[in-house]
Amino acid sequence: MLIHAVRAMAASRAVSLVVVVAPPDGAAEVKSLLDAHALPERTDFLVVPGGESRQESVRLGLDALPPGHDIVLVHDAARPLVPVDTVDAVIEAVRDGAPAVVPALPLADTVKEVEPTAEPGTPERVVATPQRARLRAVQTPQGFDRAILVRAHETVTGEVTDDASMVERLGAPVVVVPGHEEAFKVTRPLDLVLAEAVLARRRLNDGF
Predict the structure, then answer these.
(1) How far apart are CA 94 and CA 149, in angstroms?
(2) How many C-beta atoms surround the C-beta of residue 72 within 10 A?
(3) For residue 207, what pLDDT band results from cuts at 50, 70 and 90?
(4) pLDDT in tens, 83-101
């Protein structure tokens, strides 16, 4: 999954450097894994140890980023199949002046807000039904103007679920571009089956 996620970023001709944030004690292993697979020659790769949380790991990746890279993408390795067109759309939106950009899809299901219960599995009372037309399921890569992402990590405290949320807390605008159904997150066994099916179709069609 990691190799496919790295290749997904490097597939964009606008991406010149990929910083892979490894587990705190796994940087050497991740570097060996990258060295063992063919990756685009036009793209440089850097592996750095991460932190104890997602937020800390992103900050450590930012700290390792050399000068001259003014647009930063933050991507989850758990989304290994994001198409290059989605990556390019995020980059283009940042280039056009958006300080933060997220790819996202409309929701297919109705969403209910509930009152959580102390006992898992017990019935939960519905308190609201958000308007589905105003909701989006957010994916990665999320794109940022480097300066505002650095400022967000320097000033926003408390755990957040994504980096765009940190920029929102600064009061800066975050915009959405169309995501893609193949940029799903692999978190369950069924997701892995779907990912294998997508890869098999890609190999059949274009040898990817």
Answers:
(1) 12
(2) 23
(3) low
(4) 999 999 999 999 999 999 9
Phi and psi at 203, nearest 5°, equal -60, -40
Residue 28: count other Cβ atoms within 10 Å of its Cβ: 11
In whole angstroms, give the CA distance from residue 68 to residue 190.
41
Whose tokens are 């600064």? That residue is 170
Tokens linked to 151: 């400022």
Asked if residues 160 and 100 have their Cβ atoms less than 8 Å apart, the reply is no
**Structure token digits, residue 16:** 């010149």
Which two three-digit tokens encode residue 87?
């990556």
Domains of the chain: 2-106+139-183 (3.90.550.10)
Residue-wise pLDDT tens digits, 11-62:
999 999 999 999 999 999 999 999 998 888 889 999 999 999 999 999 999 9
Q: Are 46 and 62 in contact (CB under 8 A)?
A: no
Number of Cβ within 10 Å of residue 132's Cβ equals 13
Per-residue pLDDT for 208 more than 60? no
Residue whose C-alpha is closest to residue 6's, from 49, 26, 36: 36
Contacts of 140 (CB under 8 A, 6+ apart): 73, 74, 75, 76, 79, 82, 102, 103, 162, 183
Q: What is the pTM of this model?
A: 0.91
**What residues does 21 pair with on adjacent strands?**
48
